Amino acid sequence: MDAIKIDNLAYHYEDQAPLFKNFNLTIQAGDWVALVGHNGSGKSTLAKLILGLLERDDGKITVYDLPLTEENLGKAREKMGMVFQNPDNQFVGATVADDVAFGLENQQVPSQDMPAKIEAALKTVGMAAFADREPHYLSGGQKQRVALASVLALQPKIIILDEATAMLDPQGRAAVLQTLKDLKKAYGDQLTLIMITHDMDEASLADRVVVLDDGKLVLDGTPAEVFEAGDQKLKDLGLGLPFSVQVSQALKVQPPHYLNQQELLQWLLTLNK
Questions:
Q1: Catalytic annotation present for 71
Q2: Which domains does the chain have, with CATH numbers?
Q3: In whole angstroms, what is the distance from residue 158 CA to residue 216 CA?
Q4: Which tens digit of pLDDT belongs to each residue from 181-224?
Q5: What is the pTM of this model?
Q6: Which of 70, 78, 134, 163 is catalytic?
């Protein structure tokens, strides 16, 4: 089933040339998609168009068979949640639990049902022990996991993460990425992840990598397909390559195909033997 289907999308910012023109993209339910590209390539704009935060010039966007129209916008948004780059911009509650409760209150969830939903969402992201803490005392990675819990509590079918690790230190970034892996393992086809990033190591974790360049789709496939076929193209776009690919290319004896970091380590150990 299609989680998101975009047909002939057109959009431009005022007094600027069209960014998207006849743009098409389909994302299957349960996919983990990395949406990558240089700054200004259209990644975040596309996310805002999918969420209905921007009004497209032309074309059609469908979310789980529901056309994104003015009449359907509320219903479509109930199926989606977004985690932004700066978690501080998303906090509205005095405590972590209050912050997770905010979205539930907006959806008019009965008050007696909220504690269990809050606890479940925080437990899922490993933040249950911090329910009574004030958000501004948390680390960057902890804040981002709370932001993710606030989205999860609403039980969306689609979560969009817009450069959600860009402002984190390595430890916080690793914690958030591990949480995403755990979510996909736990929810499977019931959850679709769209991760906007310019970090190709993050992109390598996804099921599918979609590369944008000035509103155009230039590469689309599994990480292996994109990194093998688009080596020079990615470099031309200033995106670089995952660390495992860079190491592979520096070896005298190179692996026969793309390997992620864990696979490369195993291959090197086998080669050494």
A1: no
A2: 2-230 (3.40.50.300), 242-273 (no CATH)
A3: 23
A4: 888 988 888 999 999 998 888 899 999 999 999 999 999 999 98
A5: 0.87
A6: 163
